[in-house]
Amino acid sequence: MPVVEAVVLYVGDKILTQIIKEEVYSKRIRYFFCPPVTYKKRLTKIIYETIDEFEKSHPYDGSKGLYPFYHSQVFFSHLSLFVLYKKGSLGKIEWDIKKIPQLIPPKHKDIEDFYKLFTTRTNADEILNTKFIEENYQKQIFEVCKKIDEIKNVVDSVKDDTTAIRASIQTLSEEIKSKQLTPEITTQALEAQVGRQLKKQIGSGKYLPTTFIEIGDQKDDLRFLCDSVFYSKKVFEESTILDFRHFNNFLEKKNHPQFVFDLEKYRPANGEMTISNCKTIVSNWYNYLVSKRQEISGIKIASNEVYKFESKFRDRIDDLEFLNARVALITETAGQGKTNFLCDFSDNFLLKRHIPSVFLTGAEINANDIRQSIIKKVFPDLPIFTFQDFLNSLKNICYEQKKFFVLMIDGLNENYNSKLLSQNLEEFISELLENDFIKVILSCRTEYYQHNFLNLEKSSFNADLKKITSLMSHRPDDEIKKKLLHVYFKYFNIECHRIMPRAHDQLVENFLMLRIFCEAYQNQKLDSIENIYKEELFEKYYAVKSDEINKRLKGNDDLKVSGSFDIKNFIQSLVEFMIQNSIYVNVPLDEIIADPNDREMYVHFLDENILIRRDIQTDEKGIFTDSEVVNFTFDEFRDFLISRYLIEVLFKQSKTKFIAFIESQITDKSPILEGCSTFLFFVSRRDSDKSLYEILFRQPWFDFVFSKCIFSLKDSQITDEDKRILKDKLINNGGYNISIVSNLILRYNIDYYKNLGIEFLFEVIRELDQSQYEICFSNIFGNDRWGSRINQENLLNQMEDLIEDRPVEKHFHFHKLFELLIYMFLNVDSWEIRALYEKYLFKYEETGKIQLKTALECKNQALIQEIAQFIHYYEISL
After folding, report:
1. Which of 152, 308, 377, 540 could form a disulfide with 520 if both were Cys (CB 3.0 to 4.6 A apart)?
2. What is the DSSP letter of 467?
3. Is residue 777 part of a domain?
4. How far is CA 545 from CA 197, 255, 548, 564, in A?
5. Does any domain span residue 371?
6. Are 825 and 867 in contact (CB under 8 A)?
7. CA atoms of 783 and 785, how far apart (whole Å)
8. Both 770 and 877 in a single domain?
9. 303-340 in b/e burial notation, b at 16+ Cβ within 10 A?
10. Which H or E run contains 614?
């Protein structure tokens, strides 16, 4: 067989001029490259040491004249590529080896085992481990595409088998052309990758399409950063129209020189804005606006006029900062919707604007090889492309379309090796930004960012970095809350004919509670939602989410979860640890993982679910020690689980231990007092063991919990004993009168609250004497806006709106609200009360007569006299 000689010339520290000889196999040109002379001896020594060690456990039979894969020059070339350039993959190695018939076909595990040994040895070598040369793999291998003619000349000098070699060259040329990364292939691969990521996040529940509501500037900020060329025109035009005529009139009166603002002189020539000149042009705009703002602030006039016109520049300068930035960093606390925000941005902006982008999660990044992590996600079925191939293709696309490439990594904290990632990420981004067509978006939980990624603020690209420290620029108003409730119900396919104000407020005031409710009741038709029964809600939610999480983890091939795995066991271990150690926050993660080998799987679970979160203690060093801890995302859900465990496990095991725990741990100073006392009360109501209720009844917190929680039970669960206790608390002024009366007033719908409602309040009031009436009822009303009493003015205003704007006959349960006015005749400002009831009586005389007649059954003679005077004054005949 002939020998083909080729010369490969590299400059400086790279490969020197060498003659490379390789036999022609199967009438194909085979080629490889050699490492630099400086490293060749060191690398060769490690390769042979690895071979010797490998052969001890993997002997081979050479009787058939074949030799093993690790003795081939092709494999030697791959090892060199891996050490010097961090290039290659096991799939590519197997592909090349299969083409050589003289080699013993290796198993995939054989190659994998060899690489593990080899990697261990090279990582231990300081020089080889730190050597990293960024080159295009296809340029390294003779720059074949550009040097086909040179190879043909070499072939022409070979006399034997010229025809066969020419055929091999032609085949090689066609093969290389077929593997070129075209803009079409790149564009399709990018959109497919983002699409896959969005589907994955929908499956995990982190992305809820159509639920994102834009209430701040954060999304606009990212739009400016990612599509700077397109949005530069908008920002420029908004800046040029800033009007300072009034300011100049003011200056003229003060005998100051006129203020000149002329941004037009910085308009791009011919209006041409490109990827290459975008940053320079925007920087000029930014510098000009900053200088003009400073000019205004420097005017020595004591007047608010100066500040007013100075502030005109604020928003435009902020916009220009994001137009000019290269990196956006979003930091937020857990559960605030970082992933939902970025998914919505990708789905409804990046994809729809056809902006070339990659969307990865921190968990998907190999901290040791960020480049290969990206390539694997973008080209899962085409491992032949290198990262430089990728960048070259992106550059052509971006320059032609005038759009930046956006690399987005969500949840840096989710990476299993965050410390290492923080170091390598800084270097990677620094090198990546040497390409002017690239922008980067990163997100991280605030506490993990503070602990692991602060080095990004000290990086070479710090001047090009913009931080977004909150996704909630202001508290949502009532319209936003109403819209949010609607979009969540629509997304989770929940139909509800009626939702009472109390239930509505519970949901919209806590977005996490809204999410829990929707996940628990998705795809259901609800007649009405009168109240949020948390004990019932959490029980249902726990069952739904546990099953969902188990299915998702077992379906994840990367995690290799065994069939016996159940996340409920993990949660139970967490609750047991809390109870046994009296620790309810920051539980060390390693303390509750039964098998250390499963740690990565648990970390993945913690970052994928919304039940429990992984946290970090900032006063500790490192994150793989006790500094990495676990907390429940929602404290009330934690208290629910602790309460259930206390009753279902501890109480049944030992009543003595149960009593000891609640008396020592559920106290005024305990973080679990409010939640656990509440859920213990709920569970005790349905437990058949009456001794449980008796134990709780003796606790010092029981009175408060009873008065609060009795109104969170379903009306059908209220007993005569409950009503007796409530009546006793009202009459004897048990300290909870305001809470009890307020709750009873809200239960004016007597069709729904047939057992314990406003009618029960009327019954109690009719039994009170004058002294009891004043203490227990009339004195708890007042008009002081910030007082501790029921705000009578607000109550009357709301009832005024009802009588004028809503026909009571269509909402007949409102009649009971107006009947309440009769029992308030002795309150402060009673003339307003009587005037409002007179309006009601004028419209609904017959119903009013019945109400007045019933109220005359009171034992309070002062109230009877007031009612009688009202009847006489209006000449009402009962």
Report:
1. 540
2. E
3. yes
4. 21, 71, 5, 17
5. yes
6. yes
7. 6
8. yes
9. eebbeebbebbeebbbbbbbbbbbbbbbbbebebbbbb
10. strand 612-616
How many other CB atoms sit within 10 Å of the CB of residue 28? Answer: 17
CATH of the domain at 403: 3.40.50.300
- In one letter, which amino acid is 280? T
Cα–Cα distance measured from residue 821 to residue 834, given in angstroms and rounded to the nearest whole number: 7
| 19 vs 593: which has the higher pLDDT | 593
Q: Are 77 and 88 in contact (CB under 8 A)?
A: no
Q: Check residues 277 and 558 and name the one with the higher pLDDT.
A: 277
Domains of the chain: total: 3
Which amino acid appears at position 636 of this protein?
Answer: E
Q: Is residue 741 assigned to a domain?
A: yes
36 and 170 housed in the same domain: yes
3 state DSSP class of 311: coil
User: 11 and 80 share a domain?
Assistant: yes
For position 2, what pLDDT does the model report? 39
Question: Which range (353-357, 454-458, 603-607) has the least confidence?
Answer: 603-607
**Which amino acid is it at 396?**
N
Taking alpha carbons only, the member of 577, 597, 598, 599 closest to residue 586 is: 577
CA distances from 439 to 197, 459, 552, 610 (A): 19, 16, 33, 30
Of 424, 446, 468, the residue at which a domain comes to its end is 468
- Could you please report the per-residue DSSP string of 639-687? HHHHHHHIIIIIHHH-HHHHHHHHHHHSSTT-TTHHHHHHHHHHHHHH-
Please give the average per-residue pLDDT across 507-529, as a whole number. Answer: 88
Question: Which among 777, 845, 834 has a CA at the least distance from the CA of 808?
Answer: 845
Query: For position 614, what pLDDT does the model report?
Result: 78
Q: In terms of Cα–Cα distance, which of 568, 579, 570 is closest to 646? A: 579
Strand order in the sheet with 612-616: 587-588, 628-632, 612-616
Q: What is the CA radius of gyration of the chain?
A: 37
- Among residues 435, 468, 501, the one where a domain terminates is 468
Same domain? 731 vs 877: yes
Task: Write the DSSP assignment of 63-124 as a string of letters.
Answer: TTS-B-GGGSHHHHHHHHHHHHH----HHHHHHHHHT-TTB----HHHHHHHHHHHHHHHHH
Q: Answer yes or no: are the C-beta atoms of 679 and 616 closer than 8 Å.
A: no
Q: What percent of the chain has pLDDT over 70?
A: 81
How far apart CA 858 and CA 767 sit, in angstroms, is 6
Those residues whose C-beta lies under 8 Å from the C-beta of residue 9, and which sit 6 or more positions away, are: 15, 17
The CA–CA distances, whole Å, from 447 to 225, 332, 619, 839, 862 equal 25, 8, 11, 59, 63
User: 722, 756 in Cβ contact below 8 A?
Assistant: yes
The dihedral region occupied by 225, where left means phi > 0, alpha psi between -120 and 50, and beta the remainder, is alpha
β-partners of residue 529 are 499
Instruction: Say how far apart CA 633 and CA 611 lie, in whole Å.
Output: 6
Q: Give the burial class of 149: count Cβ atoms within 10 A of its Cβ; 0-12 exposed, 13-18 middle, 19 or more buried.
A: exposed
What DSSP line would sit under 571-600, residue for residue?
HHHHHHHHHHHT--S-EEGGGG-S-GGGHH
| Same domain assignment for residues 110 and 195 | no
> Looking at the domain assignment, is residue 513 inside a domain?
no
| pLDDT confidence band for 565 (50 / 70 / 90) | low
Q: Which of 790, 847, 787, 791 is nearest to 822 (CA)?
A: 847
390 plus 406 within the same structural domain? yes
Is residue 201 domain-shared with residue 70, that is, in the same domain?
Answer: no
Amino acid at 752: Y
H or E segment at 310? helix 304-310
Range of the domain at 771: 721-878
**pLDDT at residue 14 is higher than 50:** no
Do 12 and 98 have their domain in common? yes
d(CA 225, CA 324): 7
